[in-house]
Each structure stands twice: as structure tokens, then as C-alpha cells.
Amino acid sequence: MKISRTTFLAGTALVACMAVNALAANPSDAERPNILIFLMDDMGYGDARAYNPESKIPLPNLEKMAEQGMVFTDAHSSSAVCAPSRYSILTGNYPWRGRNENGTWGFNNPSQILPGQETLGHLLKRAGYHNSFFGKVHLGGAVFDKTTGERLTSWKIDFHQIDFSRPIGESLMEQGFDYSYALPSGIQGQPYAFFENDRLVSNPDELVLWEKGRYGNSEVKAAGFGAADWDSSQAGPKLTEKALEFIDRHAAENKRNGKRTPFYMHYCSEACHDPQTPPEQLLGTPVKGVSGISDHLDMIYEGDVALGKIIDRLREVSELDNTLIIFTSDNGGLPWGESSKHGHNSSAMLRGGKADIWEGGHRVPFITQWGDGTRQGSKIPPGTRSSQLIGLQDIYASLAELTGQPVEENQGLDSQSFLKALLDPDCPPLRDHLFVQANNENKDGQRLMKMLREGPWKLVTTKQQEPVALFNLENDLEEKNNLLNNPEQKERVQRMAAKLEKIMRSKRSTSPQPGK
To answer: Does residue 230 contact residue 192 with C-beta atoms inside 8 Å?
Structure first.
């Protein structure tokens, strides 16, 4: 009997729907997957060969993930810069629903996450997960004067005043994480020091003031205080080492308890943000000089090495096949500098790069894997590609659905689950619109420009929501043909502009329980 494509796709969609329901129907700890979110810093769409065959840097671990999992080709950060997009990933909210429209950057500024806003940490803790965080935070926090007890919020803070006997407040251990080894501002700003479980790792009496400059393999891009032995090139190796130690401890505890508890790891690589100071090697694997082109590409390679080390350790403790891995980047890449002189384009065919409202600023690599890489042994079909429109804030609702956790009316306000798409590359579109904001000034000095997607259509507006461009990305992914003034598109421009304004005024932009 001949089966039509329509009937086949309907059957596939039904199977995927049944699989989603089965996964979310109160799964036991033994069945729930571990969850690894591996977040790169400033890695572009064109840096990975899964998107750009002309990429000049091999990423063997990521390329294997692409072969054994699913590649999303239309994934976007909520912002074209990191602090606001990191908030969105953790909360499922657009950036302007936090404390500041463009995110919170200072480590001692009041947290971007407002009181009552839950994170992935809170969500997964309720689902029985053991949660960990590694790397750059960029969500603010609270530090206090050791004499008066008053909160210190000035950027020009005298670190001698800080009471380091107290943990950083409003930070990771208050956001649902059981363990953290973090850099509050990454490698780009003070404090140049690690914090474990929100407490300073270094001796506070030995902190120093670092001036901007190069120090051997290390570099300080902005003056600030930090540990006396700070070395930006060693941030990646240290974070990877601590992540592996967490996996070992978790596996040992499961064995000791005779019961499997799943873990959630939120790993925020420092690669490939400035200062681009790749290590000579990462836990025995050479890194610096591997690309033969630039420190920028060496650092992207460093991120791939760290990913591989974590995957290898998961395999060693027999947890890899039941770990959902999500690899992505906090915003677009860096299509300029030394790498571009050698023919490498971090944005590939896309216009613009980090901080831009153009596609190169926020369309990001997004590759997932869950299983052993075979059709029979994988929940996510290996070797597949998805054109689903998704935002990084959608991770929140997706993991809620995966673990059977309800999304409350006042949480995950802009998150739409893509779990069905993970299980079925031919799944019908799940999102009908998506909002993204930028950071860079345009030629008229406009900052915080915005965009709205509807299917293939992209409307670009100023901060004040005045339309400046309209593109059909289906046939103009390079954004060369501005259709804003095309008379045939007048109604579309008006309607999309009104919708963008409605989203900005909304209490939430997605249904908390889609399909119910």
C-alpha cells in the first residue's frame, strides 16, 4: 500500500507527540536525562562547519555532535550581547522583563533576576535534579562593606572594603544551584578571581589591583581587582577541571546511594571572548597555535576541547547516552580582526556580527544530542537538521515539558517549548513570532534596536519601535533587499510593528501550557 507524504508526516507527528507525553508523564529519576547546557561566549553561526563548510577551524567534538544529533538552523539569542541573553536563558524571559532592559553587567549591581522570577535552577531542582554552574555569570549580585555592612554598588569599588567572609548575595546559590564555580564577570572584567559556591576562592588579603595590559600569556582588558595569580589563559582549563570533578562526585554519590539522581550542568565557557588568550594546553590537549591563524580561532577550538573532555567523562561514568546536551552561544560572532584576514567569517553568509540587530548578531549555533548516536539508541534523531524558529529563552519551557514541570503563569514569560521539534525534525512550526534586541548603534546613533520575526519575515525597528527595515529571510538571508517602502508590504509592516509593540507591553508573550 502506498502511503502519501501527508499521511507519513501526520504519523511521524503523532509518534513525536506520544513520545513527548511519555517523557513528561512523571518520569522517574532513573529515566530522566542529565542536562548539559554548554554555552559558548561570542561564537558565531559561521564558526562551526555544521553551518559554514568554509570555517577555518576544525571542531571535531562539535562536528561529531552534529552527526549524532540535531542541528537547528534558525536559533536566536534574545539579545545580540551576552548579559541580557544569559538572563533570558535562565529565566525564559525577554531581557527587558529583568531589572535592566539591556541586562546587568556589574558583578555588584542588584541582580538582573527580579524577586519572584525563577530560573532553570529552581525549575530543575523541583524535578529532582542536582544542579551545577560553571563560568561567566553576568547577572549582578550583592557584596557588602565589612565595616558598616552596607551594600556596595559602585563600579569604582575599593575591594579592600568588601566583606569576603560573606558569599556574593543574589547569585547562583540563591538561584537554584547546588554547586558553582564561577567568574562573576568572565575574563573581561573585575573581579579577576574564581568564586566557589558564591565565595571567593582566593585569599582576600592577597587580592591586587590589576592594570590594563599583557602579562605573559594572560591579558587584562580593563583595570580592576583580582587574585594575585590571575591568568586569563587558565580560566578554561580550571572550569573544565572543576566540571569533571563535579561529574565524578555526582557519579560516586549515585553509586554510594544506590540510586540515580540526574544532574543539570550549566557550563559557560569563556571562549572566545576578549581577551583572547588561549592556553598552551587544556588538560593535556594542545590548544594555542592549533588553528595556525589567530588566538580567536584557537579559543573556539579550546571550547570544543572542553566540550570533548566533558563528553568523554560522561561516557566513562556511563551517563552519556542518557544526557541531553545543548550546545549554543550567547550571541553572534566576531566577523572581523585577524581571523577575517585569513578568509574566516564568523558570521558566514549572515550580515553583521555581535551586538548587531542583523542576523549575524543573534542567529547562533544550536546543536543537540541525546542518545548513543544511533537511530535505535537516540531520543533525538541523529544526523538531522531542523529549521524551527527558536529562541534561547525557549530552553526553559522545553526542559519544563521534558521533566513534567508546569510553567506557572508568572514564569517563563516568553518561552515556547521546542521539545516536539527535538524528537521530530519534520515537526510543524511551533513558534509564530520571535523578538530579539540588539546593542550596537546604527548610523543614526540608535541603540537597543529591535526585531520581530513572523515566519520568514523580519521587521527591524529603532528602540522607539519605529520601523527601519523589512526582509524576507527565505530568499534574502543576507538582508540585502530592504522591502520597508514596498507598497505591497505596507499592511505587513503596520501589523508587525503593532505586534512588536503589543509584545513589549505584554505580561507574557507565550502560553504557559502550550497545546493545553
So the answer is: yes
